[in-house]
């Protein structure tokens, strides 16, 4: 796959033809013609379909929410849940995307009320899938697979079987504090504070 991708991406022709000749696939594009070795298609693993009890909805903001919550994905592989997104959805298309890395919690949501379905998906896999699909995403899922589809593309993902963290224990609706600060002033204050200690304590009051 990597060899085919590298070859096709370097061809400048608007039209590319592929022709299989025994154990070789011939690629033609403009003045370029290459023969690449290929495997027997019968040995390719069967692609599993999303079947059984299926939840289906259209998600307009999945890609944006996944990207915006991604800063809270863990950068190590020590905990699979911290490398994953929790995605909760309603049948009308509203959703809630959450990530946690042990230091930060990031939640992007336009959902009101309880979700109709939820899934936990490996972070890099979901981010790359959303990047490949422009605009609205059609989602189908069962208990262990999710299918994301858009124009001319369909991606099937394996879902994590374990339950995600109960973020309600960390984020209480009754304890929300909303404030507006000057971004440059906040960054400057944090940069000055970490020169002394990497741990920063932020005090919020109405007299600041």
Description:
It is a single chain. With 208 residues, the chain is α+β, with helices and mostly antiparallel strands. It contains four helices and eleven strands. It has helices at 2-9, 62-69, 123-132, 183-194, and strands at 17-21, 24-29, 32-37, 55-59, 84-89, 95-100, 105-109, 117-122, 137-141, 145-150, 153-158. The strands form three sheets. Strands 4-9-10-11 form a four-stranded antiparallel β-sheet, covered by helices on one side. Strands 7-6-5-8 form a four-stranded antiparallel β-sheet. Strands 1-2-3 form a three-stranded antiparallel β-sheet, with helices on one face. α2 (62-69) crosses α3. 14% of the residues are buried. The model has no long low-confidence stretch (mean pLDDT 87).
- What order do the helices and strands follow? HEEEEHEEEEHEEEH
Shape designation: extended
The helix-and-strand class reads alpha+beta
Strand order of the largest sheet: 4-9-10-11
Strand element count: 11
Helix-residue proportion: 10-25%
Specify the biggest β-sheet. 4 strands, antiparallel
Mean pLDDT: 87
**Number of DSSP helical runs:** 4
Radius of gyration: 23 Å
Rounded to the nearest angstrom, the distance between the terminal CA atoms is: 57 Å
Low-confidence stretches: none
Oligomeric nature of the chains: single chain
Percent in strands: 25-35%
